[in-house]
Amino acid sequence: MPKGLKRYYGKGDLHFLTFSCYQRLEFLGTKGARNLFAQELARARGEYGFRLVGYVVMPNHVHLLMSEPCKGTISTVLQMLKQRVARKMRRAQGKARQSG
Hints:
Elements: E1 14-20, H1 31-48, E2 52-57, E3 61-67, H2 74-99
Antiparallel strand pairs: 1-3, 2-3
């Protein structure tokens, strides 16, 4: 994380966000992974009350254009979203190994 990073919230502006997967690995490279991300994004939208103008899910990164949430901050929304997706993907990966 860069030092001296400033976040500006509270003006009701739209925010364009880009974030990448761990070590830029292609964790979102499958249809199932992208669908999982989209489902969790919709869930987060309902829970935190933000407008989602658009998004693009690439194999190793995501672009979002969203409003500020009614509840919490954009940072907390992204933290929760990333954690949920990662945990569900890891669980699914573990189940696949056990059955394989």
